[in-house]
Amino acid sequence: xxxxxxxxxxxxxxxxxxxxxxxxxxxxxxxxxxxxxxxxxxxxxxxxxxxxxxxxxxxxxxxxxxxxxxxxxxxxxxxxxxxxxxxxxxxxxxxxxxxxxxxxxxxxxxxxxxxxxxxxxxxxxxxxxxxxxxxxxxxxxxxxxxxxxxxxxxxxxxxxxxxxxxxxxxxxxxxxxxxxxxxxxxxxxxxxxxxxxxxxxxxxxxxxxxxxxxxxxxxxxxxxxxxxxxxxxxxxxxxxxxxxxxxxxxxxxxxxxxxxxxxxxxxxxxxxx
Length: 273
Hints:
The protein is an alpha+beta fold.
């Protein structure tokens, strides 16, 4: 007994569209099944790449591009069951995409190529704190055409890949250690040897300060109101900001205890009678 749906047999062509219900069902099944398979395959590929110690950014970029290509193939195969010639459809799509890319999306290919170069050269990895195109934040994601940064105050910054790749990139967390560069000003009347010793004592008392390279404290400038010293300890990158803020408090307390003054900006005025 032939199966009928809405009064039409599965292999009977429907009026107006000239396509059978069976072909429509096959097209839907192929589309749904294909999408599921593509998602599973891309996820497995991503896991394999990560397991092979390939960078997360490269793994995500590769799987996204592959997923996009496979989706196009699945859609084309699905359309074939509806009697649409894939070859003719691809030509039509290519012509349309050519105009779109040429006029509306002229920078898209450049962004894609830049994203590929970022994934290959790996100037940063997910989670690194960087400055790119004048914007600073932690790398959240590198997509096919955009890079996403998250700022310290939890804002999302989206930058076109070509702007990231085409400019200078500063990676603050690429290495395990960083030097903290600070300037301290003391009064001209203070004993500089005592100032240097007191500053080094504060640095040596902090376990986060690395012994190698040794911290440096030296006179750098005779300013208008103070003698300025450079203070340059090395710490683990993860300790950078915690140490920076804690040191400011500790050095003020130490200077107060030692009678070392941190002068206010001042000006001496001499009046000739």
